Amino acid sequence: MASPATVGHKVVTHRTLPLVGALHAPDAPWPAVPLRKLGGRPVKVELAGVPFAVWRDAKGALGAVLDRCPHRFAPLSAGRIRPDGRLACGYHGWHFDARGQGVSPSQPGLTGCSVPSVMAFERFGWVWLAARDAPPGGELFDTEPLPFVTSWEAWVPRRLSAVLATLDQCPALDLLRARLGWDRSAAAGVRCAREASPEGFVERWEGTLDRALAWPARVPEGTSFRYERSFREVPLRATLRLSWPGRPEVVRAELFPVPEGPSSTRVVVFLFAKVASAALPWALRGRIPALLGAFTADPGQRRLTPSADDEPAFAVRFPALVQSRAALRALAARVPTGVDQTPKPWTGYKTFEVVERREETATMVTLRLRPRDGSALPSYLPGQHVTVRVTLPDGARAVRCYSLSRAPSEDGYQLTVQRTTRDGRPGLVSCYLHDHAREGTTAELRSPSGRFVLAPGALPVALVAGGVGLTPLLAMAQGLANTGAQRPCTLLLGFHSLSQVPFRETLEALCRAHRWLRVVLCLSDGALPEDSPFTCVAGRITPDVLLAHVPAEAEFHLCGPAAMLAALTPALLDRGIPPERLHSEAFGPASVVALRAGAPPAATVTFARSGLQVPWDGHTSSLVELARNHGITIPTGCCVGSCTTCMTKVLAGSVEYRQAPGEAVPEGQCLVCIAVPRGDLTLDW
Amino acid sequence: MLPAVTRFFHPVLPSRELSKGEAVVTLAGRRYGLSRGRSEVGARALGDAPPARVCERYGYLWLGDEALPASAEPAIDDEGFEHVGCFGARFEAPLHVAFDNFSEDEHTPWVHHFLGWREADLSRLDFRSENHPDRTEVRYSAPQRPSVWTPALLLLPGDHFHNQWVTRFDPVRTVYTLHWFDPKTRRPRPVVSRFAIYFVPETAGRTWLHTFAMARLEPASLRFLMPVVRRVVPFLGRNEVGDDARWIPNVAGTPFSFEGMRLGRFDAPLVHNHHLLETLYWQASMG
Ligand SMILES: Cc1cc2nc3c(=O)[nH]c(=O)nc-3n(C[C@H](O)[C@H](O)[C@H](O)COP(=O)(O)OP(=O)(O)OC[C@H]3O[C@@H](n4cnc5c(N)ncnc54)[C@H](O)[C@@H]3O)c2cc1C
Ligand code: FES
Ligand SMILES: [Fe+2]
Q: What CATH number belongs to A148-334?
């Protein structure tokens, strides 16, 4: 019988770990850790789901072993480096040399104490892991010796095949267009040839620049360019090479998409360049984030494929791309990424309990929750929310949505709740949580959902929050920091006074650690702090303030009270910000109102149980409001199509949604909180 | 869901944490509301938990099945000792992980601040363990490593410690008796401490360790130092248990079965303990 003590816990087969499998091919190295991360402590790095502990001793010698002590399976990366250069486990002190030979200090005669090891070597400022002592060293990028400029790493929360697809698809095209001065209108003059090579394949793109380039040198419009992309399977890497025939400049990037596990990939890029001026490689460094932004595009993870209008057109014009894509799919299938043990979203409600309560400000409380059954939690996209059902002291149940107020973390979900009053009455759920939620208090949660997440791509990001609307945006900012993408980001916060600003320490730390992040505080009481890493502005957030601090080409993410969104949205549209770059979430039914557009269809809505028939006038935001206006109260929870409390049977006719439901709606049902009729409609109410 | 374990009384809450009102506790995934009325403490099963009752002993509230007879109420082996404090510590790990950690001293030099020996003194380590059908008995003795605690415990540099314990499974608990002695004369030092630690599963992934600290001073002429001992011993206990609690999340995912592990001689009691954990603690609860 299975031991009850293992219930709810990952049971991993520890017998044989596919160490070499994790390394893909015995003599093909993976870039594992930048050397600068190896200080006096070991570092954990995961390759294809297999954890390694990598360390460097005081003399500079490197070691890499399976991150699991053979004794009682403690992670060796939680251990320490001994003065003799060996890695000691933090549990019982068993220690290991770089070949994994182990000794138990408390029982020195014990044999069989070794841990599997792999080879580690240093090149271009990185520690590389390989199974064999085979070639690498100097010959890693032997093709064409160019001066090494810099290296960079981006973490992408997506599996390898999805990352390969991005490398192949839109970002590469974006790069051509945006970085080489070739836009869609000039596409006709661009030629693409593709060749299979023994190691993979090569694509050559040629054409002429339709605008002048400022980097890597001044290259005038009309110059011809050559762009080569080659993919090699062993070691898995893409080589991107730009040159301008007849000119001395060459820029080459070597990209290593390294599968970390089944659902995340690290892309490590090494940049080499030959440019006329000696100073230029340094100038190029500053370009890396933007360049990488184009390749690894998607920290926000929403669209991993090119925008719909690009794809078919390019496929017809450049059949080579279609072939490359098929080749990359086949390649991705051959590279191990580890067993998928990531927890999956659940359906319905799951019981959680509060494990920590923190007073954030006088009116905001942060709650950290974990499932009561101890199960592991699925991750989520920063910006998403959970639907929470609580049982109030009088036994009644109520449902509300709360944003997850930090980027995904292993120790549970975190919510931050503002104490709310509506029409002078205390808010039911927010006040309940403020007054009653303690360690141990339970609540039921649906799996995280919601489409208000970071817009993908490399464009600058504006995160604009009023009050507690900060919660999803803080998670997004932390999420951006975790990807390492260095995408320029401005977080604009509107509060009445400084004392009301939550997460001050978190924000300050983020701000100090990341140069690409700016925090602008708009304080309506005008009292500005003297010493603060933030930019402070007196007054409310207005479109002028916003556009003074944020580049107009940014992706705008707005969250806050309905009134703030109602004021900012039209003003931004008026100033030419296109709707596809305006993303917003209101913490209530206002998001529906904001999205209502076009002339209302003439329709009659019948509430079957009462026989009431009323015209749909287009002035109401949803069927719930229409019902309420005529004395019928349909129970609701979130009012944004997330919680399904308002699910109603459609007896005749059909509805459409002004914003996409956060949950799948079964055939014949509808979420009346966000639905409007499409012609005559009969509801089971 | 874990099997129910309320056929044994488990300590769940220090009495001082329920002076009035209600507190909610979780035992093996089942929730109970504990409340203090004018005269006694009551337990209310929440959700689908079966009815339970509480009793109050040794400064703690203990929870068990409603039908448990008075004879099942807890008795701590404290003969000759004075109770000097009790406390709970949260371990973010399944029961077997927290319990294994407390079933060997091999980790003490690395995980702890005070307990343990120096690597150089290993040859002088004496270790014995005995398996019995209902318990394990273990003994460690070695030179105490130097620490700031030494004077507070009335020890001299070079003293050896002697840590002897008995583990039982109704419910899971270990009583450690720890004293120090002069290696030359083998005469014990005045402070003798005892810690009864109960391993209480809250959920599949979290365990509470409720500790009852006890002490005695010998000879009688030194009893005037008892007020110091009353402070030092629980403080020491809390600190050392805290060291384990901080380490434990690192190994929280390790499996119940020892398959594939290279166990050493200090792990012998762990293997027997797992057998008793299954047959006496979990299984009996399920039957
Ligand atoms: C996606 C999303 C994310 C959110 N994230 C957060 C968060 O991170 N932190 C936070 O504090 N709050 C958040 N909220 C708001 C939160 O869900 C509650 O609405 C808020 O806490 C007030 O609830 P209450 O029960 O205290 O107030 P009550 O006033 O008792 O109830 C509010 C209810 O009434 C509805 N309602 C409110 N105003 C109107 C109106 N004018 N007309 C009709 N119905 C109305 C609401 O939709 C809600 O169902 C979020 C809301 C949404 C939709
Ligand atoms: S009220 Fe939540 S989905 Fe409609
Ligand atoms: Fe310990």
A: 3.30.530.20
Closest atom, ligand 2, to C-alpha of A673: 4
Kindly state whether B96 is in contact with chain A, defined as any CB-CB distance less than 8 angstroms: yes
> From the centroid of its chain, how far is CA A389?
27
Residues near ligand 2 (Cβ within 6 A): A 636-639, 641-646, 671, 673
Tens digits of residue pLDDT in A315-345: 566 667 667 777 777 777 777 777 767 788 8
Q: Is B15 on the interface with A (CB under 8 A)?
A: no
Q: Which of A658-662, A677-681, B58-62, B216-220 shows the lowest mean pLDDT across its residues?
A: A658-662
Is A74 close to B1, i.e. CB distance below 8 A? no
In the three-class reduction of DSSP (H, G, I as helix; E, B as strand; rest coil), residue B57 is classed as: strand
d(CA B153, CA B191): 6
The per-residue pLDDT for A295 is: 45
Contacts of A372 in chain B (CB under 8 A): 26, 29, 203
Distance CA A578, CA A195 (A): 40
B14 pLDDT band (50/70/90 cuts)? very high
Q: pLDDT band at residue B227, thresholds of 50, 70 and 90?
A: very high
Beginning with the edge strand found earlier in the chain, give each strand of the sheet holding A80-81 in spatial order. A80-81, A87-88, A95-96, A102-103
Mean pLDDT of A207-211: 77
The Cα of B110 is separated from the nearest Cα of chain A by a number of Å equal to 6
B residues 260-279 closer than 8 Å to A (CB)? 260-267, 277-278
Of A463, A470, A385, A432, the residue nearest A640 (C-alpha): A385
Range list for CATH 2.102.10.10 in chain A: 19-130
Model confidence at A219, pLDDT cuts 50, 70, 90, reads: confident
Q: Is domain B10-72 classified as CATH 2.20.25? A: yes
User: By the 8 A CB rule, do A63 and A97 touch?
Assistant: yes
Tell the CATH topology of A19-130: Rieske Iron-sulfur Protein (2.102.10)
- When the candidates are 3.40.50.300, 3.55.40.20, 3.90.1150.10, 3.10.20.30, the CATH number that belongs to A593-683 is 3.10.20.30
A1, A3, A410, A439: best to mutate for the B interface, most B CBs within 10 A: A3
Shortest distance between the Cα of B258 and any Cα of chain A, in A, equals 8
Q: Which CATH architecture has domain A350-445?
A: Beta Barrel (2.40)
Decide: A371 in ligand 1 pocket, CB within 6 A: no
Contact: A93, B119; criterion CB under 8 Å:
yes
C-alpha–C-alpha distance, residues A235 and A199, integer Å: 9
Cβ–Cβ below 8 Å for B250 and A91 = yes
**What pLDDT, on a 0 to 100 scale, did the predictor assign at position A148?**
85
CATH of B82-282, one of 3.40.50.920, 3.90.380.10, 3.30.230.10, 2.30.40.10: 3.90.380.10
Q: Which residues of A touch B267 (CB under 8 A)?
A: 72
pTM of the model as a whole? 0.74
Pairwise CB contact (< 8 Å): B204 & A440: no
Nearest Cα residue in chain B from A374? B205
**A369–chain B nearest CA distance, Å:** 14
Which residues make up the CATH 3.30.530.20 domain(s) of chain A?
148-334
- B24–chain A Cβ distance below 8 A for any pair: yes
Contacts of residue A92, defined as CB under 8 A and 6 or more positions apart, other chains included, come to A69, A71, A72, A74, A104, A105, A106, B106, B107, B110
Rounded distance between C-alpha atoms, residue A32 and residue A44, angstroms: 10
